[in-house]
Design brief:
The complex is a heterodimer.
Chain A (H helix, E strand, L loop, with lengths): L1 H34 L7 H23 L17 H30 L8 H25 L3 H18 L15 H25 L2 H21 L2 H8 L8 E4 L8 H7 L5 E9 L7 E2 L3 E7 L4 E3 L14 E6 L1 H5 L11 E6 L1 H7 L3 E15 L3 E4 L2 E5 L3 E9 L5 E9 L6 E7 L4 E6 L19 E10 L12 E2 L7 E23 L8
Helix pairs in contact in A: 1-2, 1-3, 2-3, 2-4, 3-4, 4-6, 6-7
Chain B lengths: L1 E9 L4 E10 L4 E5 L6 H8 L7 E6 L2 E2 L5 H4 L2 E5 L10 H9 L7 H11 L12 H13 L5 E5 L7 H14 L4 E6 L2 H5 L4 E6 L2 E7 H7 L1 E7 L13 E7 L2 E6 L4 H11 L3 E8 L2 H16 L1
Parallel strand pairs in B: 3-8, 3-9, 6-7, 7-8
Antiparallel strand pairs in B: 1-2, 1-4, 4-5, 9-10, 11-13, 11-14, 12-13
The chains are: A alpha+beta, B alpha/beta.
Chain lengths: ~525, ~300
């Protein structure tokens, strides 16, 4: 213990200027986070999330490289250090210089945003553990494998470039409705953290550089394909429960319906086949969302295509077929009907794929993933003001100005816990009118990095467009008269996930050309 | 104190050390000498567990070198020319920091060493000259009175005065300690070593006590009555025989007064005079190196 403190004291004496820089950055970030009332961070905050993480990575490495583990010329290697004490001193430094200040910043942000931090201490500690497993621990492991800090920086930038490529870089229009695969993230975290622990032990206890480097490279080589190619269905296989019965998906007979509404949402110029489908929900629940569909098309001529889910994790992937489901009611209605089940399966082909399939009989089969949910208790807020929504979080309704200076009513929610999907209804009882949107239904332009993984808060928002006129004209039925706001109510209804399941389907043989949507 | 058994270290394309077997007796000052690239530092690094042997093993203070732990390292003082010191530390903090690791740290000795070496306590190690850095490293390696001192080319590049001062201090401060010193500077070895091992191209050429070595090496000069050629089939123990007019010179590596004279008389006709001169260690080393080069050529 005495030598742990002795080494720790030495490390702080040496590294306090670097640690102080990270504390200043953390303070600036916490201040920005404390004042932010928007889902999207400013580019400054986005950059700070990125740069502070990098600064912490460097700081952890500097602490380790005070007693480098690679090379035979280091003073400390011939001194009577005990490796557990040395390692503990390094971990203590990381906890005191990185994780403890980060925890304090989280407490500050929560308190400043009106949450009582003591109620969320478990979550805050868990966040630090995840950050430790995903960032600090791998940084320590990497620092154990390099000869000096310059080598470490080069390795970090190479790895960061790899991560950026696998994540599609910065997206100007972040796709925040894209399902993030928890399983993939968890699998990568577990893999990297386990490899990091093995590397750290190998280096501190045995100082075996080559086996440790082999382990680290193997873990990274395994993590990259896991990040890019872990099938979406793997997560649903892991989490699906069949106790409530599996939904059934079949082809509907109708082929004469108007598809223009659905087409409007499809966009693009690719050949699209729209197949009418009917879904009978299982006994587990009538409300569901279909996060993805995987379709396989087998042609009589032996040609086979599997649909792919476009992902920024696979930037170089060639995609011949994309499958998705749509609801006519949702697409057609200006007052979006959230709960109507999909009745179309859209198959988007690349031109070469379509040329090979259009005139042959094909068998279409596949699987669809289902998120089953129930509607939670609705929280009611005034036309302008704030309040708590049960099972959801703290929400604020305020007027805001859009990108083109148009007036909008912003509904902004935040919670230290994750925000479930939710529907937001603006109800004006005197006129018996109502407007409905979903949480996070708007896309916001972001010129820089926008991820705010260091924030202790989960945020979500949506906008109602406002108008000065009270008359409802064709094409303007989605505009809310400003004069209604004083007597309007906002209802926020969380959609609480109750289960997940996978359902297979097989439509038998069809000719795709008969479902082709004319452009 | 130290024992190596068939110690071999191979790198990808070369063998830095081959089958080194030697024993460093307790209380000795054991010099590991040889030209650059002979494998001295490799041997020391294996002994200090800084690198692992490809074959063979080394034993230090009674345990396998690959298992050297804090208990053993607390009894070993190690200074190397390639050692990277924590240069950001001031000398006083460097001493204070190291002190905590050694239960046997002697404050009085540390102060004495600081005085003796004229170490500036208020300066960072990075601001010190190379000689001063070596002194600082020696101070923190001697102040706990180690049982074993391992020095890897510690004085290379230092001037003679500093070298003498450091050698004196090692002998004076830790008279009981066993010292293993690797060096290619033969003058520093001569005044210090009790035993010597000569390494060349990774192989051990010989290992023996300095006294024995000094006794068996002689520079022999024979003056003949009249000029003649060098006879063939001279003993292998006579290194680099040279003839210059009526004078024959060589280094006898197995000198014994009576036997050597008889041998000379048997090999050369008309010997007018035989002179044998004691050799400095430097001369012995040079003769060996020169002989090796001649053989290779």
């Amino acid at each position: 213990m005495r030598l742990i403190l002795h080494t720790l004291q030495k490390d702080f004496r040496r590294l306090w200027p670097a640690a102080a820089i990270t504390w200043v950055m953390l303070g600036a970030l916490a201040r920005a986070d404390r004042w932010r009332a928007d889902w999207l961070a400013s580019s400054m905050e986005g950059w700070m999330n990125l740069l502070l993480t990098m600064a912490w990575v460097m700081l952890a490495a500097l602490a380790v490289l005070e007693e480098p583990l690679v090379g035979d010329g280091h003073f400390w290697t011939t001194r009577p250090y005990r490796w557990p004490e040395l390692l503990m001193a390094k971990l203590a430094f990381v906890v005191l210089a990185i994780h403890f200040p980060s925890l304090l910043a989280d407490v500050f942000v929560l308190a400043a945003r009106g949450f009582w931090p003591a109620d969320y201490l478990g979550l805050l500690f868990w966040k630090q553990i995840l950050f430790f497993a995903a960032v600090t621990l791998p940084s320590i492991a990497l620092a154990c494998l390099v000869r000096n800090f310059t080598h470490f920086v080069i390795a970090v930038f190479a790895i960061a470039a790899g991560i950026a490529i696998l994540n599609g870089g910065f997206q100007s229009f972040p796709d925040f409705q894209r399902q993030e695969s928890e399983l993939r993230h968890a699998a990568i975290r577990v893999l990297l953290a386990t490899a990091a622990l093995a590397v750290i032990w190998t280096q501190y206890a045995r100082r075996r550089v080559i086996p440790a480097r082999v382990m680290a490279i193997a873990a990274m080589l395994a993590a990259a394909p896991l990040s890019a190619w872990l099938p979406a269905r793997a997560e649903y296989v892991a989490i699906s429960r069949e106790s409530g019965g599996i939904p059934r998906i079949s082809l509907r007979n109708s082929s004469t319906e108007d598809t223009s509404a659905v087409l409007g949402r499809l966009g693009g110029t690719q050949p699209v086949a729209l197949l009418p489908i009917a879904i009978v929900p299982g006994a587990a629940g009538k409300l569901f969302r279909i996060p993805f569909v995987e379709v396989e098309i087998d042609a009589q001529n032996g040609t086979r295509f599997r649909s792919k889910i476009p992902s920024p994790n696979r930037p170089f992937e060639r995609i011949d077929l994309v499958a998705d489901t749509f609801s006519t009611a949702q697409a057609r209605s200006s007052q979006q009907e959230f709960y109507s089940p999909p009745d179309w399966l859209a198959l988007r082909f690349s031109v070469p794929a379509w040329e090979r399939l259009k005139n042959v009989r094909v068998r279409i089969h596949g699987i669809a993933a289902f998120d089953l949910y129930r509607r939670g208790a609705a929280g009611v807020l005034p036309g302008q003001g704030n309040g708590d929504v049960p099972d959801f979080g703290h929400c604020t309704v305020m007027t805001a100005e859009g990108r083109y200076f148009e007036e909008m009513l912003k509904v902004y929610c935040e919670s230290p816990r994750g925000l479930p999907a939710a529907s937001i209804t603006l109800r004006h009882e005197p006129s018996s009118r109502e407007w409905r949107i979903r949480l996070n239904s708007s896309v916001t332009y972001s010129p820089g990095p926008h991820a705010t993984w260091l924030s202790p808060l989960h945020r979500g928002q949506s906008f109602f467009h406002l108008t000065n006129s009270v008359e409802s004209m064709a094409g303007s039925q989605w505009l809310v008269p400003i004069s209604y706001l004083s007597s309007a109510r906002i209802e926020i209804t969380p959609e609480i996930v109750t289960g997940h399941t996978l359902a297979g389907f097989d439509f038998g043989e069809v000719t795709l050309a008969s479902w082709l949507v004319p452009r | 104190m130290i024992r190596t058994d068939r110690l071999t270290k191979r790198y990808r394309h070369n063998e830095a050390l081959h089958d080194l077997t030697l024993e460093v007796p307790p209380g000795s000052v054991f010099a590991l000498v040889g030209p650059n690239g002979a494998g001295k530092s490799t041997a020391i690094k294996i002994i200090m567990n800084l690198i692992r042997p490809s074959v063979g093993r080394a034993e230090v203070l009674g345990i396998d070198s690959t298992r050297l732990g804090a208990v053993e390292l607390a009894q070993i003082g190690y200074v190397s020319e390639n050692q990277r010191l924590p240069e950001w530390m001031r000398v006083d903090y460097f001493l204070e920091y190291c002190r905590a690791f050694y239960p046997s740290w002697d404050n009085g000795l540390a102060e004495e060493l600081v005085r003796h070496y004229h170490l500036p306590l208020d300066r960072r190690l990075s601001a010190l000259s190379r000689g001063m850095k070596v002194k600082a490293a020696l101070a923190v390696s001697l102040a706990y009175r180690p049982r074993l001192i391992v020095l890897d080319e510690p004085f290379s590049g230092l001037d003679v005065l500093v070298r003498e001062q450091l050698i004196e201090s090692i002998v004076d401060c830790t008279p009981e300690a066993t010292v293993l010193i690797a060096s290619h500077d033969l003058t520093e070895i001569e005044s210090l070593a009790t035993h010597v091992a000569y390494l060349n191209e990774g192989r051990l050429e010989f290992v023996e006590e300095m006294e024995v070595l000094s006794a068996r090496f002689r520079e022999i000069e024979i003056t003949l009555d009249s000029p003649s050629g060098l006879p063939s089939g001279l003993p292998a123990a006579w290194l680099d025989p040279e003839l210059s007019g009526v004078v024959v010179r060589f280094t006898d590596t197995h000198y014994e007064p009576v036997r050597s004279r008889d041998e000379v008389a048997r090999r050369f006709a008309g010997v007018r005079e035989i002179q044998s001169r004691e050799m400095s260690f430097r001369s012995i080393f040079l003769a060996l190196a020169k002989s090796r080069r001649t053989q290779c050529a």
